[in-house]
């Protein structure tokens, strides 16, 4: 793991930017690169937690199977994210399945190296703790949304979070940078494929989003944020107050919630 290509990839990730060259070499000891084709499984829910990982490129989906046999999409893993941290929580098995949404590359360290990894590199230990704290906070937020919010709010907020974490400017607005289906959105928000399809179709008519096969583009972040904040959506069909400017201007609002 000392190739210039790997170092170049790592240097672009916030996780490793604080490290000196010597610290980076030390952190990489014992790491093995893994190249994943789209659809490949990194590990299965319930499997022995033998490794921890960082994603270098691509995108991964974290999903759990419920006792009733349904599937819940827990989150997406983006480049620079640590995952598979069962060892950090003293858990012997992975709590979810992780699979590649698109071609991806990650680094894997044996579980036995976790203590050395964190004790020798306090910056990485701190970021790992922040990662686990953020995921716990996100889980609490999703429980609150499922308990209190209407489905339209939940779907709107899920799309806004995806755009915030993995948005890319396009000619029409801000696209989610990886393939995502309506079924994925349904499994993230505790609703049905039919409901997500109906909502996206309605938002498309109003100029808020554009969607297609495994593709969602947000044309008006401000309008979708209002939907996420209020259960009752406007009944107009694409009025100026909903769209907040021409679609070509939407990319300039990428920083909005």
UniProtKB/TrEMBL annotation:
From the UniProt record, list the coiled-coil ranges: none
Source organism per entry reads Achromobacter insuavis
Q: List residues of the HTH crp-type domain.
A: 149-222
Name the chain's protein. Answer: Global nitrogen regulator
The record's annotation in Pfam families points to: cNMP_binding (PF00027), HTH_Crp_2 (PF13545)
Q: Does the keyword Transcription regulation apply?
A: yes
Q: Which domain of life is it from?
A: Bacteria
Which InterPro entries does the entry link to? cNMP-bd_dom, cNMP-bd_dom_sf, Env_Response_Regulators, HTH_CRP, RmlC-like_jellyroll, WH-like_DNA-bd_sf, WH_DNA-bd_sf
Any one GO CC term of this protein is: cytosol
The alphabetized UniProt keywords are: DNA-binding, Transcription, Transcription regulation
**Matching SMART domains, A to Z?**
cNMP, HTH_CRP
Name the PANTHER family for this protein: CRP FAMILY TRANSCRIPTIONAL REGULATORY PROTEIN, LISTERIOLYSIN REGULATORY PROTEIN
Gene3D superfamilies listed in its UniProt record: Jelly Rolls (2.60.120.10), Winged helix-like DNA-binding domain superfamily/Winged helix DNA-binding domain (1.10.10.10)
């Amino acid at each position: 793991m000392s190739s210039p290509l790997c170092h170049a990839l790592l240097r672009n990730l916030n996780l490793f930017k604080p490290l000196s060259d010597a610290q980076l070499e030390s952190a990489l000891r014992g790491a093995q690169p893994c190249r994943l084709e789209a659809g490949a499984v990194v590990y299965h829910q319930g499997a022995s937690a033998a490794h921890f990982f960082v994603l270098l490129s691509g995108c991964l989906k974290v999903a759990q199977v419920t006792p009733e046999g349904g599937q819940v999409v827990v989150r997406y893993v983006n480049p620079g994210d640590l995952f598979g941290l069962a060892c950090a929580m003293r858990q012997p098995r992975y709590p979810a399945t992780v699979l590649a949404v698109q071609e991806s590359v990650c680094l894997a360290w044996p579980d036995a190296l976790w203590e050395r990894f964190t004790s020798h590199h306090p910056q990485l230990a701190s970021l790992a703790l922040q990662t686990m704290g953020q995921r716990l906070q996100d889980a609490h937020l999703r429980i609150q949304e499922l308990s209190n919010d209407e489905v339209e709010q939940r779907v709107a907020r899920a799309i806004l979070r995806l755009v915030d974490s993995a948005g890319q400017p396009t000619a029409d607005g801000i696209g989610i940078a990886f393939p995502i289906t309506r079924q994925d959105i349904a499994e993230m928000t505790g609703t049905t494929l039919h409901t997500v399809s109906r909502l996206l179709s309605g938002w498309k008519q109003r100029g808020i989003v554009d969607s297609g096969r495994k593709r969602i583009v947000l044309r008006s972040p401000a309008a979708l944020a209002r939907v996420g904040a209020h259960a009752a959506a406007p009944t107009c069909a694409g009025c100026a107050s909903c769209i907040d400017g021409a679609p070509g201007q939407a990319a300039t609002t990428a920083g909005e919630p």
